[in-house]
Amino acid sequence: MAQTLKIVIPMAGWGTRMRPHTWSKPKPLISVAGKTSLDHLLDSFDSLPKSLQMEYVFIVNPYLGKQQIMAFMQTHYPHLKVHYIVQSVMRGQSDALFLARKHLQGPMLMTYSDTLIEADFSKVPEESLDGIAWVKSVPDPRRFGVAEVGADNTIKRLIEKPKNIENTLALVGCYYFHSGEKLISAIQEQFRRDVQLKGEYFLVDAINILLENKARMRVQPVSVWLDTGTITATLETNRYLLEHGRENSATHLGTDVEVTRPVFIHPSAKVSASRIGPYVSIGAGCTIQDSKIENSILEESVSVEAASINNSLIGRQVSIQGRGADGQAISLNLGDDSSVNL
């Protein structure tokens, strides 16, 4: 009988770069292009064979993650089998996977929750090597980890934040391992050697131990690598997704609404006497009146009246009262349940 593929998504971090939104919800539940980041991430696995047996392993934090991620999945994805592991102390990526070790038998696919890539996973179950690291060539790789490869495209070692720009194959945060057990053994060895930085155990160090033990891994390039880990990156990802098929026609709007595509406007949103777009996502239950909105994300049940907004991320149930749509546009970063009178 074929082994079950485990899809592992560590998402226990506190999401400090997404404040104030992550004070009230975990980062994967922040909206982008009409869906949560987690929705988009789960969509990315659609290329896996439909006949494949799959189980998900979510590594969450003990507060908002444990409470809200589980409820979200039960509501929206009741058909998926999901195991939840709580990482209470943030000791790094390897520690997160080690906590989930009882579920990591056999093949596993792992991706970070703020990583969105466009990849074809259809051949992953047929992979003959011990693992795959997805990479993207970038002009300056010094902010990322990189893969050093040989002539046969197999990985020699992984380097975290290289000091030069000669190797441009940046690690995008998605990996396949043929044996979860061997990865856990490598993590145990990482712990034994105490290979860590400022109290955090990084996965690249465990993978390098795997490679020392003669594991054979290769790189797989991707053409699209998106990020939802910061406000700026989330707005850029929103823009890309709307440009590439995630917009909707917004035909339910009245004639007093000027729309510049691409946009996503939820069918339940009410928009009047306003100019919307480009690159705007408006969530369910929003009310927009006498306003101008560009390059922004408005989550559920936002109310905007007489305001000009650009480059903004607006949380759920926010109220914004402006001074007119024709004034200078403002950029806002507002968490859930905020109220602003401009």
CATH superfamily of the largest domain: Spore Coat Polysaccharide Biosynthesis Protein SpsA, Chain A
Main pleated-sheet profile:
7 strands, mixed
Report the structural category: alpha/beta
Compute the CA-based radius of gyration.
22 Å
Helix fraction bin? 10-25%
Provide a descriptive summary of the structure in words.
By secondary structure, the protein is an alpha/beta fold. The protein has 2 domains: 5-227, Alpha-Beta Complex (Spore Coat Polysaccharide Biosynthesis Protein SpsA, Chain A), CATH 3.90.550.10; 247-341, UDP N-Acetylglucosamine Acyltransferase, domain 1, CATH 2.160.10. The protein contains 6 helices and 25 strands. It has helices at residues 37-43, 64-76, 93-99, 180-193, 203-212, 231-246, and strands at residues 5-10, 31-32, 35-36, 54-60, 82-86, 108-111, 115-117, 131-137, 145-149, 155-160, 169-177, 217-221, 225-227, 258-259, 263-265, 270-272, 275-276, 280-282, 287-289, 292-298, 303-305, 308-314, 319-321, 333-334, 339-341. The mean pLDDT is 94.
